[in-house]
Design a protein that fits this description.
The protein has 402 residues and is mainly alpha-helical. The chain has helices at 3-10, 24-32, 44-55, 86-90, 146-193, 198-238, 245-271, 280-306, 311-334, 352-373, 379-400; strands at 72-76, 96-97, 105-106, 126-130. Pfam families: Fer4_21 (PF14697), FeS (PF04060).
Length: 402
């Protein structure tokens, strides 16, 4: 084994990047090139001592500026997961399983606690938990038994193998995609270059390959726009009405991401020499953006009115709502879509007294049911609860009776 391999075998194989390198093996190369041995928070004092013994250098204190990394595992709040697969793409050892638009989960026995999956999550549903009892960490105290040291070494080797297999798989997939792009470019250029001389044929192949690369970038930009639009609409439906201040802030961020993705797509579409895109999608995007702005202005105004904000603020929000309504009308006119056939439905006014009577009826029914489930409830308490329920039912019946 080379010195780099010996050093890499002592590192915890979390591939977390806290040392400033994209993985444990690049840090091993950095140590060989002269970097200090105290830049690995997951390894801690045990790894520093092992590296010092291997390299015959003094033991250093852990560089605390790089943070701490106690034994931990990632945990996904599955009820909040939207299935975006961003955490799956970020995990360096394929310890997260799931599929697009489906729930994801973490394989605790495989997770090394690198926390690289936390930042990419767009809905913040991933958190780091302490390592469960009985689970062996990749590193431990200096006084660990020989069996524990062997088990930790085996776990590090296992994590390294998963990391290397994942990198090999990603490399194969990328090579396969590149080969497919080149094959499509060759098929597209073959009829045109059949009668050309070798130089012109080579130029046509280069142009076709560039066109295929631009087409792949354009497809990716369209996917990014679709994902950001779907995430924005899903958040609008999931948040309450009116949304809280934090939810409004998140909506603004999502809308900015959606607009940035649209701008990137527009730049790519303008640079592609293919047939020009139809104007309808851009107009549809403007219409959707106007609808989102109107919904946000309406929510802000309702929230201010509920909180009894100052009249000046209410007036400003009302003017912003009117501007958003005008912008929506203009977007609807520019979209050239047929106006919706609206049918006004007259609703009965809400009877506040009837609502109070029904609320009392619900409370009386729930109270009686609760007392009946108890074995030690006094009979006089049950009689009072029944009388309360009968009185509530009578009042509701008298109120709604013609």
């Amino acid at each position: 084994m080379s010195l780099i391999q010996l050093i890499d075998a002592l590192l915890p194989q979390t591939q977390c990047g806290k040392c400033g390198h994209p993985g444990c093996k690049p840090y091993a190369q950095g140590i060989v090139d002269g970097e200090p041995i105290n830049k690995c928070p997951p390894g801690g004092d045990e790894t520093i001592a092992a590296l010092a013994e291997l390299l015959k250098v003094p033991v250093l204190e852990l560089d605390v500026s790089r943070g701490s990394a106690p034994p931990q595992v990632a945990y996904i709040r599955e009820a909040e997961c939207i299935g975006c697969t961003k955490c799956i793409q970020a995990c360096p050892i394929d310890a997260i399983v799931g599929a697009a638009k489906l729930m994801h989960t973490v394989l605790i026995d495989e997770c090394t606690g690198c926390d690289l999956c936390v930042a990419p999550c767009p809905v913040d549903c991933i958190e780091m938990h302490p390592l469960p009892l009985g689970t062996l960490p990749v590193v431990g105290g200096l006084a660990a038994s020989l069996e524990e040291q062997r088990a930790r070494t085996a776990k590090r080797d296992h994590a390294r193998q998963r990391f290397e297999r994942r990198n090999a798989r990603l490399q194969r997939e990328e090579q396969q995609k590149q080969a497919e792009r080149e094959a499509r470019a060759q098929r597209a250029a073959q009829p045109a270059v059949a009668t050309l001389d070798p130089v012109q044929a080579a130029l046509e192949r280069v142009r076709a390959q560039k066109a295929a690369t631009a087409d792949a970038a354009l497809k990716k930009a369209k996917i990014d726009v679709a994902m950001s639009r779907a995430q924005l609409h899903k958040s609008l439906k999931a948040f309450g009405h009116p949304p809280t201040f934090e939810q409004q802030s998140q909506l603004i961020v999502l809308q900015q991401q959606f607009e940035a993705a649209e701008q990137a797509l527009a730049i790519l579409e303008s640079s592609v020499p293919a047939a020009p895109a139809a104007p309808a999608p851009a107009k549809d995007a403007d219409l959707k953006r106007a609808k989102i702005q109107l919904a946000m202005r309406r929510a802000e105004l309702k929230k201010a009115q509920t909180a009894e904000a100052p009249p000046e603020q209410i007036a400003t929000l009302e003017q912003a709502l009117r501007d958003a309504q005008q912008a929506l009308h203009a977007a609807e006119a520019a979209s050239e879509q047929p106006a919706p056939d609206l049918v006004r439905v007259e609703k009965r006014p809400i009877d506040s007294q009837l609502r109070q009577l029904k609320t009392e009826l619900a409370y009386a029914r729930a109270n009686l049911s609760k007392l009946q489930r108890r074995a030690d409830t006094p009979s006089d308490a049950l009689d009072k609860a029944r009388a309360r329920l009968q009185d509530a039912e009578r009042q509701v019946h008298d109120h709604v009776a013609p």
